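Re: that chain you flagged

S.,

Sorry for the slow reply, it's been a week of failed gels. I finally had a moment to sit down with the sequence you sent. For the record, here it is as I used it:
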Amino acid sequence: MKMLLQKSEKNFHYYFYQEYNNSGSQYPFIINIKEKPYFGRSSIITVEIENQNIFEFFTKPDEEFLKSAVKTTLQNINQFAIQRKSLFKNSRI
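Prediction finished late last night. Pasting the C-alpha cells below so you have them in one place:
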C-alpha cells in the first residue's frame, strides 16, 4: 500500500535532502525516514539508522518548524556517526 505524503512531509523531505546535499557529509549507513499518520492532517516523522530512532516529531505546516527539525535531524545523525565511529575504533583495540 502506498501512502500519499502530506505537504509538510514532502517539505521535510525536500529540506532534508537539500541540507544533506549542501553539507557535503557522507555516511556509511542508510538513513530511513518514515511517516505515520496522526490525527487530522498531521503525522509523525521518524528518522532511523540501523534500527535506532535518531529523531521523531509531529509535523506542523510551518516552514521554519520543518527547517528546524531538519537541522536537529542532521545534528543527531552527525552525533550518531561520531559515536558509531568511536565504537568501531574501540572494538578493534
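What I noticed first: The radius of gyration is 15 Å.

Talk soon,
D.
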